[in-house]
């Protein structure tokens, strides 16, 4: 059986029916976010697996723009995997901050990217909500910061979730909306973990410098 056909197999969770691809996409997505909250380098291989699964699902549904974006996320995840390993080490506890200027530049880049994506998606689909383009653009900005172990990445992921939840709920995708509520909770957990770790590292660095 082809991989795409295998992912289309239906499974039931109580009264909820979904495909195996959906279930694997949800499971690997949740695992990736949880590992990121723990600052584990293993979030990257699981993120790649998640993007590959979703890419195949989207490609089978002829959603070429969505499938293409998953390729971008695979590339970014692979880049982050290498960066964390080379610059920080597999078990590093180092985290980085950003300046207000950096965030303003990134915000401008994210908004510009969202406008461009909206135009492209409208051409490919005939119609695409601006919020979808915003979600994608901000996700790319968040991933870019995550690759650099910047605590600010969590604020961007939280913003993505806050936009995604009402969008998916309004379209009747209740299971996906609930999934993003869970992801939102994990993001707040990850933000606290990274902030706590960053604060604990700062005094140690000051002592070693002295």
From TrEMBL:
Q: State if Membrane is listed as a keyword.
A: yes
Q: Which UniProt keywords apply?
A: Cell membrane, Membrane, Transmembrane, Transmembrane helix, Transport
**Which InterPro entries does UniProt cross-reference here?**
NMN_transpt_PnuC
Which Pfam families would you find in this protein's record? NMN_transporter
The UniProt record lists the keyword Ribonucleoprotein:
no
A cellular component term, taken from the record's GO annotations? plasma membrane
GO MF annotation: an example: nicotinamide riboside transmembrane transporter activity
Q: Transmembrane stretches, by residue range?
A: 12-37, 104-121, 172-191
What membrane topology does the UniProt entry give?
Answer: Multi-pass membrane protein
As for subcellular location, the record says: Cell membrane
Cross-referenced NCBIfam families: NMN_trans_PnuC
Q: Its family?
A: Belongs to the nicotinamide ribonucleoside (NR) uptake permease (TC 4.B.1) family.
Q: Briefly, what is this protein's role? A: Required for nicotinamide riboside transport across the inner membrane.
User: Which named protein is this?
Assistant: Nicotinamide riboside transporter PnuC
